[in-house]
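Box S1 | Example of a co-folding query
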Amino acid sequence: MLKPRLNNHRNLIDISGIWKFKIDKNNEGEKKGWNEGFSADSEIAVPGSWNEQLDNLDLLHYVGKAWYTKDIFVPKNFKDKKLWIRFDSVDYHSKVWINDRLVGTNDFGYLPFDFEITEFVQCGKENLIVLSVDNQLSDDTIPQGINTHYYVDEKRPRDETFPAARFDFPPNGGIHRPVYIYTTSLIFIEDIAVKTKLTGPSSSKVLLQLNINENISCELVVNISDNNSIFNEKFKYNGNSADIEFEVNNIDLWGLGNPNLYKLTVTLFNENEEVDSYSLQIGFREIEVKNKQILLNGKPVYMQGFGKHEDFPVFGKGFNYQSLVKDFSLMKWIKANSFRTSHYPYAEEVLEMADREGFLVIDEVPAVSLDFRKVNGGTLKSHKEFTKKLIARDKNHPSVIAWALGNEPNLVGNPDYFNGEAEKYWKEIFQNARELDSTRLLTVPNCQKAGINDPVFLFSDFISINRYYGWYEHPGQIEYGVEVLEKEMDEIWNKYHKPILMTEFGTDTIAGEHSISDQMFTEEYQSKFIEKYIELLRSKDYVIGEHVWNFADFRTPQHFRRVIMNRKGVFTRTREPKLAAFKLKELWSK
Ligand code: GCB
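Box S1 (continued) | Returned holo structure for GCB
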């Protein structure tokens, strides 16, 4: 489904705000009929994680079920339309009731889901919405989950975190992005996919793939404009999907520093009556890998930027416009030109801003640290489905240049990872993604424990590596770490002949700690580590970019390795700069 928008044919109400909330530690809500309504423990802000809002309920580390409810007034004039509810993301599993009738379930966090609710709501009245949310992950969810007893079975009790997680960020729960009620007309445009292919320095082919909700014969008007209309034509078609191809001329390409965007509007006519229209921003650009380089509109680009997280005090993983604006403003200040949505899809507003600001984005499927001892048919199915849903949501963003189909498989360093099964798995995951989108690049950031024989390298368009020599390995020894890294990178290049992006490198740094000697955790150590790594990366012509880990400090599950947060941020969690921020600004301004 397309992102809900307000126009002459579509209404939209944002029903975020204060909801009622109840914890369901014993998973008894459904048995007790909470879906019919319940007496709440508390109120809670939506969007937002439940973890940092409700200290009186002690939810900081809570994993399990919770319930949300709100009475929503649906106006009379929504009658005779199709009505929908949309959650931009709920983590993780959720189940939705309206007026005590089950509307649907969703098992994919970090991504939007819509349910048609025309038959469920009463217009001109209050309607009771109830939602149950469960943030417990399992072997076959993406990302995979873990239970504390696994650590014992896996003979790695010292890796145990609380809450249990296979990754280095907390498995927060809640309604993390806005919730909408919206309407469409009875006949409406379900989806628009825009594919462009440059045919010259200022011309492009355009392939529009449209889905309409019903099999009809009708007319479509396609308009593309900036200040002036550059294309306007009528097309006739029959059925419920249409492929329309045409060429546009005199266009300005989308690129770094000049993110030219155009407004595409599709208007749908049925029996000469205008029944729907939808507008979105598009850009014309081309991305490819050639020999040692990545080319944007035929010219080499070097990526400088960050791996990030959606994480902010109190909001947790909840979307908020303030940190969206703040983070882009800091990325512009420091002269970053790109980032990765590590380790999951971010809010669509982030990609819209990247489109407008001209940032390159590597958009990540949350298959983080897949443990192949626990991968099963269900994992593969969820992974493919997740990829499909992500591509469906983000396919029209010019800023998105690549899909990261996971991050650091085999972080546990299991030798069986190399017995052929994982290779088969990745082959299928890459093939699936290529069939869904042949216009973007594919990669999976690799970890040191999977090493240079990681099967993801076989299928990637460019190689992504996360390395911490001088931190986890060879602690305190930056120069030696850089030597080890150089050897390994040369080996990777010689083996695969694919360009390399350094997707992670960095050191935990406590803001305010200083030292004249190389001393881990100080601001000087982080700044020097980053500088030395960048010096090496820039000396290799097969390197296509550097993404520092991380943009900002972020909360983690509890473990003795972490003092509340992962402190590898160049900015603190509240976005104050550390010394390395100034170093990066200097290096990235060159
Ligand atoms: C990694 C992971 C990232 C961690 C980071 C670290 O390789 O991809 O999720 O936070 O290392 O700081 O350990």
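The first strand starts at residue 12 and ends at 14. The pocket of GCB is lined by residues 167-168, 343, 407-408, 447, 466, 504, 549, 566, 568 (CB under 6 Å).
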